[in-house]
Amino acid sequence: MIRNVIFDIGMVLADFRYRDYMRDLGFPEETVELFVERVVLNELWDELDLSIRPYDDIISDMKARVPGYEKESELFFDHLVDIAAPYPYAYGWLKELKDRGYGVYLLSNYPDRVYTMHEKEKFDFAKLADGKIISGYEKIAKPDPAIYRLLLSRYGLDASECVFMDDRKENVAAAIDCGIRSFVFHDYDSARSQLESFLSPSEEE
Question: Is the peptide bond before 145 cis (omega within 30 degrees of 0)?
């Protein structure tokens, strides 16, 4: 019987809109792609998610990856509040689940400072959560099994009573290894249908 639904945040409840974000800042396309390769989609962003080293030190290393783009780097890192935006369905989906009696939890790889900013200014859905585990706060990240076990232990959850969705296959596989029923999120409509297939037996009991 499923009692709890666990959500990843980025690309599940919120758009990590880094390309459009840079376009909004006025970056030409070649600069957008340079920053995607050298700043966003690399091991330094993974390190930022863990937040073990000081935030400012990691940002300095990221800026060093794009020499000659000092102005663009300042713009990029000074306006990170706008790099993510909640999907229109996020708040309503979580509220519906809570109204139906399910626990709702967040489990996300996210830099601590950036998540704090986004929760305060962007993520209205976060206040609906019964609990959250954010990698930057805990210094562990998916798919490390420890982060799933931490969520279960901190909130007293039974893995067999939880279902988890994430846009990355390796994170879903790790959750399954921890005994949590899980699936890969592709889009809202298909995810909603998949989730209901997990929830419907509990509602018949």
Answer: no
Q: How far apart are CA 91 and CA 128, in angstroms?
A: 8
Residue 204 has pLDDT above 80, yes or no: no
Cα 120 to Cα 81: distance, rounded to the nearest angstrom: 10
Alpha-carbon span 90 to 127, nearest angstrom: 12
Q: What is the pLDDT averaged over residues 110-135?
A: 98
Q: Give backbone dihedrals phi and psi of 78, rounded to 5 degrees, phi first.
A: -85, -15
Query: Measured between alpha carbons, how far is 61 from 51 in angstroms, rounded to an integer?
Result: 14
Sign, CA torsion 149/94/168/121:
negative
**Helix or strand holding residue 124 (H, E):** none
CA distances in angstroms from 3 to 103, 120, 187, listed in the order given? 6, 27, 23
Question: pLDDT for 59-92, tens place per residue?
Answer: 999 999 999 999 999 999 999 999 999 999 999 9
Looking at 93-192, which runs of residues are DSSP E strands?
103-108, 131-134, 162-166, 181-184
Residue range 163-193, pLDDT digits in tens: 999 999 999 999 999 999 999 999 999 999 9
Q: Give the list of residues 6+ apart from residue 21 with CB closer than 8 angstroms, or none.
A: 79, 82, 83
